[in-house]
Amino acid sequence: WENTNENKNKVVHLNENTGGAGGFYEGLKIALNLNADWIWVADDDAYAASNTFEIANNFLEEHKNENISALCTSVEANNKIVLECRRRIQKKFFNILENNVSLNEYKKNYFQCDLLTYAGGILNKEKLKQVGITEKDYFIYYDDTEHSYRLSQVGKIYCIPSIKLIHDVPDIDIKTMPTSWKEYYKIRNYLLFLEKHFSKRYYLWKYFYYLIKGSIRIIINKRKEKGYLELAAIH
Questions:
Q1: How far apart, in Å, are the Cα atoms of 17 and each of 21, 162, 187?
Q2: Would you tell me the crossing angle of helices 143-152 and 19-31 to the nearest 10 degrees?
Q3: Could you report the per-residue pLDDT of 23-59, keeping only the tens digit for each?
Q4: % of the chain surpassing 90 pLDDT
Q5: Helices in the chain by DSSP H: which ranges?
Q6: Which of 74, 101, 102, 105 has the lowest CB atom count within 10 Å?
Q7: How many CB atoms are closer than 10 A to CB 64?
Q8: What is the C-alpha to C-alpha distance for residues 108 and 215, in angstroms, rounded to an integer?
Q9: Are 154 and 58 in contact (CB under 8 A)?
């Protein structure tokens, strides 16, 4: 934000629910017009340590000759590091893997990654101008993955583990969670991500994977609701 009293805090109220993706889109659009070189993004239930920007600024000073698109924090929830927040892309013949950065790497001063969640990101404004901002039509899920992948293509993304961010979310076992409408966006946006950034074979592989998986769920009447969501998401 601009370091003036009248612009220190700005709350934006939207006329419609555009989801998390729409919210980040509007926020970044406004931030691009502020007098700032770097833009902080975080969820409303995420809390950064008081020394976040001091550490980030020192890191940028030490690496000022490097081509950096974004910095990110370590993310902790329920007293453990959330590994899914920082990932790397690995291409297989038919599949795109998103591998979590291992816990051991969080012992380093910093490491490079390809994908970040918006929980604790510091984005370079010039790189945002180059690749664009959030895909607002994603509504929820995968908006930060797709956006950070674009940023990774024009500069480095560094995670600095000493910058701590607490994500205040409940400790839930994903495997036991009931089917949610959000599953539709998770699958649909994942396929849009593959279609936009990678060879067609990766998209087709996952398309038929969800087609077959969803059809089987419906036929055998096991988690049928999820099956219908999977089929809806691929069309």
A1: 10, 35, 20
A2: 40
A3: 999 999 999 999 999 999 999 899 999 999 999 999 9
A4: 86
A5: 19-31, 52-62, 125-131, 143-152, 182-197, 200-220, 224-233
A6: 102
A7: 8
A8: 45
A9: no
C-alpha distances (whole Å) from 51 to each of 3, 106, 162 are 17, 18, 10
Q: What's the CA gap between 23 and 13, in Å, rounded? A: 9
Distance CA 77, CA 138 (A): 25
pLDDT at 224 over 80: yes
- Express each pLDDT in 121-178 by its tens digit: 999 999 999 999 999 999 999 999 999 999 999 999 999 999 999 999 887 766 666 7
Instruction: Return d(Cα 71, Cα 163) in angstroms, integer.
Output: 10
> Of the candidates 39, 31, 41, 35, which has an alpha carbon nearest to the alpha carbon of residue 2?
35
Yes or no: say if 24 and 143 are a contact pair by the CB < 8 Å rule.
yes
Residues forming beta bridges with residue 113, ordered by sequence position? 157
- Radius of gyration for the chain, computed over Cα atoms and rounded to the nearest angstrom: 19
Name the strand (E) or helix (H) holding 71. strand 68-77
